[in-house]
Amino acid sequence: MPRLLLINPSSKRFGLGNIRSTAWPPLNLPYLAALTPDHYKVEVIDENIEPFRFQKADIVGITAYSSAVNRGYEIAQIYRKQGIPTVMGGIHVSMMPQEAINYCDAIVVGEAEHVWSDVLQDFEAGTLKRQYRGAWADLEKLPLPRRDVLQNDYYIWGSIQTSRGCPMNCTFCSVTAFNGGRFRRRRLEDVITELEQIPQKKVMITDDNLIGYSKADREWAKVFFSRIIEKGIKKIFLVQSSIQFGDDLELIRLASKGGLRVLFIGLESVNPDSLKSYQKGVNLKRLQQDLYHKLISGIRAEGIAVFGAFVMGCDDDDISIFDTTLEFVESAHLDVLQVTKPTPLPGTQLWHTLLNEGRILNQDYPKAWEEYRLTKMVYTPAKMTIEDVYEGFTYMRKIYYGFWRTVKRTLNTLLTTQNLISTILAYKFNVSYRKAFKESEHYTIYNRPGLKRKFRRNSPTAK
Known about the structure:
Layout: E1 3-8, H1 28-34, E2 41-46, E3 59-63, H2 69-80, E4 86-89, H3 91-95, H4 97-100, E5 106-109, H5 116-125, E6 131-133, E7 157-160, E8 163-164, H6 175-179, E9 184-185, H7 188-197, E10 202-205, H8 215-231, E11 236-241, H9 249-257, E12 260-268, H10 272-278, H11 281-288, H12 292-300, E13 305-311, H13 320-331, E14 336-340, H14 349-357, H15 386-400, H16 403-417, H17 420-438, H18 441-446, H19 451-455
Parallel strand pairs: 1-2, 1-3, 3-4, 4-5, 5-6, 7-10, 10-11, 11-12, 12-13, 13-14
Antiparallel strand pairs: 8-9
């Protein structure tokens, strides 16, 4: 019986996925396990939750994001030295195939499900090719992922995917480059069947946008939550969606009744020029119509905490963006805050633009990929220095995570949502982010006197 070892390497940086109360399992490796013939013994190592230890294997599959790909390359070399074939795939490998092929025996470019059987057949025949190119999978034909290969006793959250692809193609996002611009859905009944099999009470729906990009997609989401209610499925959901979720009160109420307790929304910016540069027209329209507060309030009023995400530090931002964003976060009563920097991930429009302009600072690849973890500036923005950005992030998060502000925010979540579960989850997410901030170089290096004087807009230095 051949042994297949599937590995998800870690960048060794702590974030939501590494802290047990907010950790959820990867789905790509369980999908490959489900497509692996029964005569294989399949094992998985997720370095986000367990240390890597060499295990015997006949073939090794490794997936990695850009920030963790060096660790993936390192692990691949361990097995190659033992004469064990290594296959690498995932979003970074798909965007940088000519680099990745130097560190493993074979690569899969694109979604791997379509070609996985070819990889294993060639391995068994001793004719493993250097490169396989996967097509975008027909989600209606995918098997249910094998969760039995995961350490389910560790993961507090379960995870499930109902769709892939995005037509929006935001400049900093690689989803369209990897999963395509066509929005693909799984069969509703397959999703419900899988959902009933997930052992965890809490479930993250990993879709980039659950409600999709058309009226039919939104109706699908309504039927999805209606079916959950009808079948009496008692789960607690974390969902990712666009701000358009707030446009539909019927959807909000169905989702809340069906168990949605935290909604992650990529708000991205309160600067209209930044939204234009990000190509985030959906957000720009609602920002210009002054609807952000109303839409967020409508979601929270139905018992759902709002998890707002922002990307700050682009060419259209100056130092006022930090105080402007903080003011919005507090006036809109966002329950959880995520702030990241505009990172030119390989394959994105931002990557191609900055590379062509010669603005990426450290091009010592692959080592430099360690900086592509959404917390580092790898280029100098037009209107600020890199130090300005780091200090601005420190200023903003130091205030947001202050003790009394956290107490006030948590009480507001409870009083507004009137839902204890939503409040507890929002608090735990904030604790995770606060922990990451306290352990970051932003806090240790840039937590200097005078940040309020520099970044408050009514300060004479904040221009």
